[in-house]
Amino acid sequence: MLRVTEIFRSIQGESTHAGRPCTFVRLSGCPMRCVWCDSEYTFTGGEHISIEEVMKQVRAFACTLVEVTGGEPLAQEEAFILIERLCDEGYEVLVETGGYISTAKVDQRAKVILDVKCPASGEELRNHWPNLDRLRPDKDEVKFVIAERGDWDFAREIIERYTLERRATAVLISPAWGKVDLKEMAHWVPSSGLNVRMQLQLHKYIWGPETRGV
Ligand code: SF4
After folding, report:
1. Of 53, 29, 57, the residue nearest 43 (C-alpha)
2. DSSP string, 137-203
3. Is 70 in the pocket of ligand 1 (CB under 6 A)?
4. Residue 123 alpha carbon, nearest atom of ligand 1
5. What is the pTM (predicted TM-score) of this model?
6. In the chain, fewer beta carbons within 10 Å around the N or the C end?
7. Could you give the CA distance from residue 172 to residue 146 in angstroms, rounded to a whole number?
8. pLDDT mean by block of 10 residues, the chain; 214 residues
9. Does residue 99 line the site of ligand 1, with CB under 6 A?
10. Measured in whole angstroms, how far is the alpha carbon of residue 84 from the centre of its chain?
11. Long-range contacts for 80-84 (Cβ within 8 Å, ≥24 apart)?
């Protein structure tokens, strides 16, 4: 059984897949506590649902793109089986993970969107660095959520140290909602000379930051 907060269909709000129709499977629970977390509602509760039932609900939404997210989806051992099942059925599968748990057991057909936690998150020390070595340039994306200038300086250093521009399909630079001046960030990013992608969370601009299940 999986502990599931919600399953819904919407548009993808982030990453290079932004704007595409997508079914989201949001699993409950996360071992991290990022100070700006926007999905604290996943920390507790959730419904225990079999993988078979999750698959049934996913099929009903009829999207070719499925994102497994959380909370931290990989904190549940059965999530790896769910990802495999989704891949077996031919879905294009995105796995959004906070970067604390190893991605080594994620089905190779799935695309990983890996967070690197910056200092202002309060969880920088829990980054599992070997995950960066597993990034694949034809599939995976790596994301830095920036809450202040120090986070951007940290992100630049990590991007260069791990040559992330070459290792990932995209390096995503995402402002923490309401924490950083977007115009300033839109200056920092091109000034850096890095081949990265500043992204805004589309769903929050459409429905507002507090709305769930959209
Ligand atoms: S890893 Fe994600 S879900 Fe967990 S605390 Fe951080 S932002 Fe929230």
Report:
1. 29
2. TTT-EEEEEESSHHHHHHHHHHHHHTTHHHHSSEEEEEEPTTTS-HHHHHHHHHHTT---EE---HH
3. yes
4. 6
5. 0.96
6. N
7. 10
8. 97 95 98 95 97 98 98 98 98 98 98 98 98 97 98 98 97 95 96 97 87 78
9. no
10. 18
11. 80/105, 80/106, 80/107, 81/51, 82/2, 82/25, 82/51, 82/54, 82/55, 83/107, 83/110
**Cα–ligand 1 centroid distance for 167 (angstroms):** 23
Only one residue has tokens 């890996």, namely: 114
Look at residue 211 in the predicted model and tell me its pLDDT: 83
- Cα–chain-centroid distance for residue 21? 16
CA-CA-CA-CA torsion for 92, 97, 101, 102, nearest 10 degrees? Answer: 40
Locate 131 and state its tokens.
């995950």
Pocket test for ligand 1, best of 24, 32, 40 (most atoms within 8 A of CB): 32
The tokens for 24 are: 């989201």
The pLDDT, as a whole number, for residue 208 is 86
SS3 81: helix
How much is the pLDDT for 39? Answer: 92
Confidence (pLDDT) at 203: 87
